[in-house]
Design a protein that fits this description.
With 390 residues, the chain is α+β, with helices and mostly antiparallel strands. It contains 13 helices and 20 strands. It binds 8-demethyl-8-dimethylamino-flavin-adenine-dinucleotide and P-hydroxybenzoic acid.
Length: 390
């Protein structure tokens, strides 16, 4: 089989890249080791920057997003039994974020791809990118029990942190930076109204908690748990009790509980692989970088990468120019490192670290107090949360 761009991974990075390329008349094939229904069952991100919404709009994916997405122009920082609103709009000259689940974006992308009749292969095995150092790269895989070779001009590695693309790069050609945090997030999804109409990020002696949502009738909550914790140890009742214990009383009293229909634990890490281009192989999204979810940046970074790479590929096919492809890695990484810093900072500010003593806790509270009293400090938080411009 032959195509112009072989896309490994059918998460938001791979599907969005495929959608933009198809719109520009560039042939592409998406391959994924997971089944389509499993891809749609994953519950992940919820907060979209305005730049992300713009890119999705330009790709023709705005209809349901604008209908069902919730505009948020502020959120709460809760600590020390109090609650402080970060006025995103007031601090950033009117900017906001949109709450719309990654699951819904993925559904919109899969529907659009199917409507356009673009080829996707699911449930494939042994995906390997080859010869990306030369002029004729290709991807091999097993599909329906049979070996398949996809010849292409470029390979986009959109296969997440555990994918095959980054692993195909010789370690000597890449530098990796990593921080693993000694805790994870236990997330729960339930068909109950959210405790507040805005998100609440809570720093508490028992650990961090986050109140988020997917709609006005569906809540998404998280609590910090030690690394290695098992989800089986958490009944719904234990989760609700722990969540309430970590919120200021006036919120805790208003939490509506109900049976969960999804509960999972995500470990927290910061990771960056540099560069993000190796000849004709490009790493995109979580394949190249991971941020802890505290800053709500992972999906937004993936969309930023896709924006830069699709610009480079369109320039290549339209004008024969290599400038955009050559600039891809540096442009993406400059944005990535700022989000890595912000996500690390939010994580450090809001979580309880097992090794932290009374001194570190006092410093956290002083910084939170500073954020509530200094417009300059709050503006730094707001500017990063709504997203730095492309
Ligand atoms: P994905 O979504 O991991 O998709 C990768 C795809 O590649 C496939 N794959 C392979 N295919 C073929 N061969 C192989 N060897 C393969 N290995 C893997 C996988 O099956 C999969 O389909 O990466 P992508 O597309 O780069 O998207 C990244 C985002 O998913 C991720 O950054 C966000 O979910 C992070 N994130 C958040 N980001 C935000 O911007 N805002 C948020 O509010 C936010 N909250 C979160 C999050 C991530 C979380 N978890 C579970 C880690 C909250 C959580 C709890
Ligand atoms: C979510 O709704 O899943 C969510 C919201 C904000 C975050 C992380 C996750 O910072």
């Amino acid at each position: 089989m032959r195509t112009q761009v072989a896309i490994i991974g059918s998460g938001p990075s791979g599907l969005l890249l495929g959608q933009i390329l198809s719109g520009a008349g560039i042939a592409n094939v998406v391959v994924d080791r997971t089944r389509r229904d499993h891809i749609l069952a994953r519950v992940r991100a919820g907060v979209l920057e305005q730049g992300t919404v713009r890119v999705l709009d330009q790709a023709g994916l705005g209809a349901r997003l604008h209908n069902e997405g919730l505009i948020h122009d502020g959120f709460s920082l809760a600590f020390d039994e109090r609650d402080h609103r970060i006025d995103l709009a007031g601090l950033t000259g009117g900017k906001h974020v949109t709450v719309y689940g990654q699951t819904e974006i993925t559904r919109d992308l899969l529907d659009a791809r199917e409507t356009d009749g673009m080829l996707s292969l699911y449930d494939v095995e042994d995906v390997v990118p080859h010869d990306f150092d030369g002029e004729r790269p290709y991807v091999t895989l097993i599909h329906d029990g049979k070996p398949l070779r996809i010849d292409c001009d470029f390979i986009a590695g959109c296969d997440g942190f555990h994918g095959a693309s980054r692993r195909a790069v010789p370690p000597s050609a890449m530098t990796c930076y990593e921080r693993i945090y000694p805790f994870g997030w236990l997330g729960l999804l339930a068909e109950v109204p959210p405790v507040s109409h805005e998100l609440i990020y809570a720093n508490h002696a028992r650990g961090f908690a986050l109140c988020s949502m997917r709609s006005l009738s569906r809540s998404r909550y998280y609590v910090q748990v030690p690394a290695g914790e098992k989800v089986e140890a958490w009944s719904d009742q234990r989760f609700w009790d722990e969540l309430r214990a970590r919120l200021p009383r006036h919120h805790a009293e208003k939490v509506t509980t109900g049976p969960s229909f999804e509960k999972s634990i995500a470990p927290l890490r910061s990771f960056v692989a540099e560069p993000m281009r190796f000849g004709r192989l490009f790493l995109v999204g979580d394949a190249a970088h991971i941020v802890p979810p505290t800053g709500a940046k992972g999906l937004n970074l993936a969309v930023g990468d896709v924006h830069y790479l699709s610009e480079g590929l369109c320039e290549h096919y339209r004008e024969g120019s290599e400038a955009g492809l050559e600039a891809y890695s540096a442009r993406a990484l400059s944005r990535v490192w700022k989000a890595v810093r912000f996500s690390w900072w939010m994580t450090t500010l809001l979580h309880r670290f097992p090794e932290a003593g009374a001194f570190e806790t006092k410093i956290q509270l002083a910084e939170l107090d500073y954020l509530t009293h200094s417009r300059a400090a709050a503006s730094m938080l707001a500017e990063n949360y709504v997203g730095l411009s492309y």
